[in-house]
Amino acid sequence: MEPQKKNHNGCGKARAKPDQKRPKKYTHPLQKGIRDFVTTRIPPSDLQEYNLSIETFMDGLPKRYTVYQPLLLLPPNALTTPPAWGALYAALNASQRAALFESVVANFRTMGVTHVAMNAPIALTHPQGQENRIRSPVGLVPLYGDFGTAPSVSADGDGDMDNAHPSEKDLQSALWVHTVQNQGIVQTWAPLYTMFSRGNITEKARVLGHAGVFEGLDEESLAGEAVGDVGVIDMYAGIGYFVFSYLKKGVKRVWGWEINGWSIEGLRRGCIANGWGCRVVRLRDDGGLVDRPIPELVDSLDDDTRVVIFHGDNQFAAGILDEIRGLMQPRGNWNSIRHVNLGLLPSSHGSWDNATKMIDMDKGGWIHVHENVDVREIDKMQDDIVAEIKRLRSQNRPDPNPVEHSVDCRHVERVKTYAPGVMHCVFDVRLSRTKATN
């Protein structure tokens, strides 16, 4: 018997011939999920019909994805790029598509994925043409898993209000996802009904003091007042983007306004996950409270209630807060409002008047104005904001005593590019009150 031939390393196993190609391994979970599906569920004859091989499109498959447990969010081109893959996907029937996403989910199982959807930019209008004031993610495409009842917009109705007041059944049946960001802050939302902006992470970090300039959350800039004694207003609270950063920084309480009931439920669930007490207060169309009068609301608040979120139009904010302050201040449990956050894009101009009324008239404070600005007009926008807020502050003073209202923009934060030539900026405007000199 002839001895087994050995390779040059002395090993008993013969090397593959140079012209033998080993199958390429794909470890990227999205690519691997697609390959597993194609190799097990698509007959080779079908690939030949399209003059395709797996290698034709595998290397060109998109690799970007985002996981918000339990959701895998794919980019808009995930099922069309490269063209060879797009043609194959378009030819799949419903059963084959379900099998495809089962294969993809299986490769993301260690990340807690059970659902798949395709992302899309937030549209400024609904398909019927109404303004998308509550920034519903109307372009999100569910691909796999139960997301709850799809949102509907009546042809002749209000595009916002059709989905701004979900029922308890709607809330319980929807898919809720979460992510963890700055210093372990949990944020929760229903992706079929509520947007989530990853680009705000830098501004949230700034509020926390991790990056950039954010004046007014330290005893020095608060003139000796402790951060834990300060109140904050968020006029567009959403799911708690900035609310949670203020709470993590240590402010006593945040009073928020929001018209989207889905966002409010996300904020409430996020508060529970982070260990903060939250009270949701429904407003009537005239600004009155639905469930109880303001004195009863005030009586029900305790130190554990870190967030009071009003479900309704923020045009009534200053009047409501003024009545609440009038009841709490004599009791010694009022926390002066030192910050107002105005996080609406493309412009928060409609809330500037209310904001100037709510900043503590004696101690002053900061208004954080979010605006989309032509990059060539940022300096001009800064001057315009300061001039208008100074006018409103003087106009809204509560007494005729001669005072000088000092208003200046302390910092302009360029958060992110919103569109070509357009920047999402935050203008940190400080308001102070000093006696006029003769």
TrEMBL record:
Q: Which GO terms describe its molecular function?
A: S-adenosylmethionine-dependent methyltransferase activity; tRNA 4-demethylwyosine alpha-amino-alpha-carboxypropyltransferase activity; tRNA methyltransferase activity
Which positions fall inside the SAM-dependent methyltransferase TRM5/TYW2-type domain? 108-433
Disordered: annotated segments: 1-28
Q: Give UniProt keywords alphabetically.
A: Cytoplasm, S-adenosyl-L-methionine, Transferase, tRNA processing
Classify the source by domain of life.
Eukaryota
Give one GO biological process term. tRNA methylation
Per UniProt, subcellular location reads as: Cytoplasm
Q: Does the keyword Iron apply?
A: no
Q: Which SUPFAM superfamilies match?
A: S-adenosyl-L-methionine-dependent methyltransferases
Question: Which pathway does the UniProt entry assign to this protein?
Answer: tRNA modification; wybutosine-tRNA(Phe) biosynthesis
Predominant subcellular localization, coarse grouping = cytoplasm
Keyword tRNA processing part of the UniProt annotation? yes
A Gene Ontology CC term for this entry? cytoplasm
Entry similarity comment: Belongs to the class I-like SAM-binding methyltransferase superfamily. TRM5/TYW2 family.
Q: What does this protein do?
A: S-adenosyl-L-methionine-dependent transferase that acts as a component of the wybutosine biosynthesis pathway. Wybutosine is a hyper modified guanosine with a tricyclic base found at the 3'-position adjacent to the anticodon of eukaryotic phenylalanine tRNA.
Name of the featured protein: tRNA wybutosine-synthesizing protein 2
